[in-house]
Amino acid sequence: MSAAENLLVERYGLRGAGEGFELLKTVSQQCNVKLHTLADAVLRVPAPDRGAGVWFPGRRRLSPPRLPGLMLEPGSRGSQGAVLKAVLHWVLSITQTPMGNVQLMDGNRLHLARHTGLNRYFTEFFAFVDAPPTLCSRAAAQRRQVTVRDVASADVFDEASRYAILQAGSQAAHSVPLTTGRGTVLGMVSSHHERPLTGFTTAQLAALQQTGDDVGRWLSWHWNTIVLDALERLHATATRPAAQ
Fold first, then answer.
1. In this structure, are 177 and 128 located in the same domain?
2. What is the pTM of this model?
3. pLDDT, tens digit only, all 244 positions of the chain
4. Domain total of the chain
5. Do residues 131 and 214 both lie within one domain?
6. Are 75 and 84 in contact (CB under 8 A)?
7. Residue 38 sits in which domain range?
8. Angle CA(27)–CA(218)–CA(108) in degrees, nearest 5?
9. CATH assignment of the domain containing 113
10. Does residue 190 lie within any of the structural domains?
11. How many CB atoms lie within 10 A of CB 232?
């Protein structure tokens, strides 16, 4: 966070990192974008032209893509929180388990964005995943679904990761990458199971694959629309005469 605050201080002549944080927090709340997502975008997206009135001149705003199968409240198709809740519910319905989680890419690592049925030890241990061996990191690297039928004997985990999963009551797991049309992995949704798995049917795997593709495209839309909207507002707020 401090890197984004310092960059804003330098770019807009703010009075210090505290003012940079307040700018991030205010825009995060106004645009319903997670604070860490906005800070990451400030660091990753090329800066606006010096003296420019807008950050992204000529940018086209598109409507959110359809998400068939997901149960969303009316008017919530543009909300990341609502979509992540719905996709986790849908994937757990397909895989028939009450335990699971959604992770999103944060630079070169995955961060835990939503979960259900998993205890605090698990969620703290897997709050950020930036290196193998874990199921989700393997699925992300291979850009395909990966099933661990028996966590206790699978060689995909180191012992610390294995313990974190087993102590949560998960004996098996399945991960589905959330990918864009170009195959870029933007996140991961995983189901956890109380007993070892024998596998999933072709129909289940196809439904999971379609869900991963649909939600991956939605996440791409969210970044290129909602997050960039937030950056545009941040730029407008910081360059208003009253903010100088």
1. yes
2. 0.89
3. 589 999 999 999 999 999 999 999 999 999 999 998 999 999 999 999 988 999 999 999 999 999 988 989 888 888 999 999 999 999 999 999 999 999 998 877 889 999 999 999 999 999 988 755 566 666 666 678 999 999 999 988 889 999 999 999 999 999 999 999 788 899 999 999 999 999 999 999 999 999 999 999 999 999 999 999 999 999 999 998 753 4
4. 2
5. yes
6. no
7. 2-53+223-243
8. 75
9. 3.30.450.40
10. yes
11. 17
